From TrEMBL:
It comes from Richelia sinica FACHB-800. Residues 11-128 form the TniQ domain. InterPro entries: Lambda_DNA-bd_dom_sf, TniQ. It holds the Pfam family TniQ. This is TniQ domain-containing protein. GO terms for molecular function: DNA binding.
Length: 167
């Protein structure tokens, strides 16, 4: 009996509206028990996953790379492209920023929070947080957000809302 090529299968993860590629990649990797390197090898773009999770888009993802990732992730390449900054929009790689009010409504990191031009949340008219208001810990890259709370003191992102100031 001859065994044909075995194609791997992956658990699908539905993207949130406005979700950053970093957050989506972290959720997809955890659902499939993959490291950034493991996902990069599965997609055929070793190294790129780690860069994208840290908002490093130089060089920007190519259409071919997005299509390869889309095939593995089971979503459309155009949907992945929406998780990236628009052409010409600069990214703020550090600090990672958060609107607690948005997170309560949709538990994900929004790509727009990391745009250099973003000063505050345009929906809630609140300043963005860049560290835990309780203990001062800087937020980790969104790919590492698992439970929606500070990695040091475990204050939930939703509870941080009371510390956000009007922008």
């Amino acid at each position: 009996m001859e065994v044909g090529e075995i194609n791997p299968w992956f658990f699908q993860v539905e993207p949130f509206e406005g979700e950053s590629i970093s957050h989506f990649l972290g959720r997809f990797r955890r659902a499939n028990e993959l490291t950034p390197t493991g996902l990069g090898k599965a997609v055929g773009i070793a190294g790129a996953i780690t860069r994208w999770e840290k908002f490093r888009f130089n060089p920007p993802p190519s259409r071919q790379q997005l299509e390869a990732l889309a095939k593995v992730a089971g979503i459309d390449a155009d949907r992945l492209e929406q998780m990236l900054p628009p052409a010409g929009v600069g990214m703020k790689m550090e600090p990672i920023r958060l609107c607690a009010a948005c997170y309560v409504e949709s538990p994900c990191h929004k790509i727009e929070w990391q745009f250099k031009v973003t000063q505050g949340c345009q929906y809630h008219h609140l300043s963005l947080l860049s560290e835990c208001p309780n203990c001062g810990a800087r937020f980790k890259v969104p790919a590492l957000w698992v439970d929606g709370w500070c990695q040091r003191c475990f204050l939930s992102f939703g509870e941080m809302l009371k510390w956000q100031k009007p922008s």
